Amino acid sequence: MRPRLESPPDTKSERPLGVGVVEDNAITRQLLLGILQTQPGFECVGAWSSAEEALRAAPPLKPDVMLVDLELPGMSGEDCLRALSAILPGTALVVLTAHDDPKRVFASLSAGANGYLLKGATPEEIASALTAAHEGGAPLSPAVAGLVITAFLTKPPTPKRGLPLPSLSPRERQILEQLAQGKVPKEAAAILSMSYETVRDHLKRIYRKLHVRSRTEAVLRYLGAEAAS
Amino acid sequence: MRPRLESPPDTKSERPLGVGVVEDNAITRQLLLGILQTQPGFECVGAWSSAEEALRAAPPLKPDVMLVDLELPGMSGEDCLRALSAILPGTALVVLTAHDDPKRVFASLSAGANGYLLKGATPEEIASALTAAHEGGAPLSPAVAGLVITAFLTKPPTPKRGLPLPSLSPRERQILEQLAQGKVPKEAAAILSMSYETVRDHLKRIYRKLHVRSRTEAVLRYLGAEAAS
DNA sequence: TGCGACATCCCCCAATTGCGGGAATTGGCA
DNA sequence: TGCCAATTCCCGCAATTGGGGGATGTCGCA
Asked: Does residue B225 sit at the A interface (CB-CB below 8 Å)?
């Protein structure tokens, strides 16, 4: 699990929030520093261009909040988050990245991120996100929150797949797996980075091999349900 | 998965967002209307003081977004959300309430809410939340997002779905049952002795109620709810 | 007596799906 | 080296699907 910031705010109000920044792009880093100076109530205690540097220098500074980019050279952003949350349990971690890839979002959140913002957030949004994170909240960009909610509401199907499913090639299995997640062929194509036509092609073969004639039936077979026919 | 809000923004950046408000407290309602007038790009198409009134008057107005309070006289806010999302599938629903009770948050989200704001949000936050919701995002107040994330990360095995197929009429269940057996709509119609058109008609309603957009997804939801217990 | 929920059926339309071809590439394997 | 399975993509076509309207009839409730 993940310790969502044990130490609530208690100290709030007066003293400015100590913020640490981990961002490899110099331009962006400067931009963030500028925002922190502009928005009232923040004080940048440090800015680093790599996870390694931040891990070395941040601990003694004990920032209240850290803004972490995910695209870092060397150690990955997720590993950086994991390490930071272990070393600085009282520090809120807010991811700021251009990606809204579900994988990275979930990886970051389970690595200890308290918030997740997409680049494009306004200075005001970044500021209130930092404050909210420090106060125990989880500031998420709407697009990211949508992913989390969807994932949250989409859990029912007992994941006991991996059953027999004879003669299905690995690629065919991957596609079936997506359909079993409720995706439509077009989405599956995008997710697996292949042409929509190719997915349709694999589907033809899947149907023949499983002796079914619709997506729904194929998924039922895949989930091990006993579909009549 | 809910495939939150299928219809992305048709890209209508110019036209102001049509907003509907459901809030029983007159003071708060006026306050919201004032905010909508102050913030650029919004146009209030209606404000109602109860779920019943909103359900009666809103449909023909087809608001782009609706701000819904949870504390309503008569029909509960959650039921109101469920009904609205069924009747106005293209309308984004944003909850605005003082409660951050996990139960209500989850009930609202699985009832079809696209966003969830806590009272105390600033006019700017409300405005950007409405826009984000209309664009397919899920604006959540940080405190609410924290609940969702925690719930998401704290449930490896039994997810515990929201509700066991909310408000499906008996006939609708029979049809879903057939589809879950692998039948195609035509066969289901024959088995249940009704017109193919009627089955299609029920399907439309089932999709709306379950927030899905394909037979496969509906069956997955059905099976997931069955596996409950 | 009117209203709302349910159920039944119909029409239309655009998009998707299922299914039949064809074709090129890759990597084993005999 | 030739064959084959797996993958990738495209074209076309008929049927199905998802969604938008309507319209009718029953039933229970106010």
From this structure: yes
Q: Between vectors from CA A130 to CA A145 and to CA B97, what angle results, nearest 5°?
A: 50
Indicate the SS3 state at residue A62.
Answer: coil
Facing residues of B17 across strands?
A: B42
The position carrying tokens 């589809």 is B179
**Tens digit of each residue's pLDDT (9 = 90 or more) over B193-214:** 899 999 999 998 888 888 888 9
What does the buried/exposed string (b/e) look like for A129-145 if buried means 16 or more CB atoms within 10 Å of the residue's CB? bbbbbbbbbbbbbbbbb
Distance CA B91, CA B35 (A): 20
How far is residue B90's CA from residue B215's CA, in Å, rounded to a whole number? 19
Please report the DSSP string for B141-204 in residue order.
-HHHHHHHHHHHHS-SS----S-SSTT--HHHHHHHHHHHTT--HHHHHHHTTS-HHHHHHHHH
Find residues 119-178 of chain A whose CB sits inside 8 Å of chain B: 124-125, 128-129, 132-133, 135-143, 145-146, 148-158
Distance CA B191, CA B208 (A): 24
Q: Is A92 helix (H, G, I), strand (E, B) or coil?
A: strand
What is the strand order of the sheet A65-68 is part of?
A42-48, A17-22, A65-68, A92-97, A115-118
pTM over 0.85: no
Q: How far is the CA of A56 from the C1' of C11 (A)?
A: 70
Instruction: Tell whether A179 is within 8 A of chain B (Cβ).
Output: yes
Summarize pLDDT for B71-100 with one digit per residue, the tens: 888 888 888 888 888 788 778 899 999 988
Would you place residue B30 in the very low, low, confident or very high pLDDT band (cuts 50, 70, 90)?
very high
